[in-house]
Amino acid sequence: MTDFELVEKINKLKKEKNAIILAHCYQNPEIDEVADYVGDSLGLSRLASKTDAEIIVFAGVYFMAETAKILSPNKKVLLPNRNSGCNMADMINLKQVREFKEKNPGVPLVCYVNSSAEVKAECDICCTSANAVDIVKSLGEKKVLFAPDCYLGSFVAKSLPDIEIISYPGFCPTHLRIIPDEIVKMKIMYKDAKILVHPECHQEVVKLADFTGSTTQIMQYCANSNAKSFIIATEKGVVDRLRRDFPDKEFILASDKLVCHNMKWNTLEDIYNSLLYGQYEVDVEEKIRLKALKSIQRMIEAK
Ligand code: 13P
Ligand code: SF4
Questions:
Q1: In the prediction, which pLDDT does 257 show?
Q2: Is the pLDDT of residue 2 over 90?
Q3: Which residues touch 220 (CB under 8 Å, ≥6 apart)?
Q4: CB-side neighbour CA atoms (13 Å) of 200
Q5: Closest-lying ligand 2 atom to the alpha carbon of residue 86
Q6: Quick check: 303 pLDDT over 80?
Q7: What's the chain's average pLDDT?
Q8: With 90 as the cut, is the pLDDT of residue 42 above it?
Q9: CB of 136 closer than 8 Å to CB of 77
Q10: Is residue 198 a contact partner of residue 218, using CB atoms and an 8 Å limit?
Q11: What lines the ligand 1 site, CB under 6 Å?
Q12: Which of 117, 119, 134, 193 has its CA 20 to 30 Å from the CA of residue 289?
């Protein structure tokens, strides 16, 4: 089947089955042709908690689909391709999060949504890259544990110097592929370009940024800025979308290595099969779901 035929069939199946397709902006750009919403982890979580659809097809990685299931237990949540995991989320399991807490008794734990349901169930509140600073601040504590991303943890610590952040040593292999030298070289070539960085990058890269934010925040910055060119230090999918949405502006990917292969597994054919055969259903044990739900809801409701 051609992509055009697949898009038609997917849209027909979506209506017949009362399904919604949520896509992260790191997905292959053709996925946008069938997506009802494209955004960052925070926007996608909010939408998953509100939709009336009976089926949510999550074009993203496993922890995102799992978060949707935690928020919408009565809906069928489908991950189109079984391989879509997240290396960072896999760096911390139940035993490791418990040990992290035991080493720091009485200190509240903020958990990045890039983690499993079991890990979320152990924390006090979740956060995404879009709201990590606000969430940590909202606790009003002097000391906070942060897991699993130590680089997002460093970004929060830098933004909130009065709070001691103790980070778990997890990281995103994709974002760590950007090295400061590459950005410096780019800046020499594109003197007027703004440097926009995802907070999962190394602090030395974040230091060079004109703006640091989530994928959606980076896209909003480009939409609102008068600048004409931008060096983008996050996954390639963001640059693909920016080039399509703002053809008069110039977007330079900070490094060719900025591809998250986990995110790129999902194809239009996978989405079609997902809707047709109801595969691959994501489920969360009820006891864990209820505990994880508290942490996610606390985040969604936080100001
Ligand atoms: P956002 O929070 O910007 O959606 O990013 C999620 C992610 O996985 C980044 O690597
Ligand atoms: Fe996980 Fe990194 Fe891929 Fe985001 S970019 S999904 S943190 S591996």
A1: 95
A2: yes
A3: none
A4: 27
A5: 1
A6: no
A7: 96
A8: no
A9: no
A10: yes
A11: 40-41, 114, 128-130, 172, 200, 214-215
A12: 134
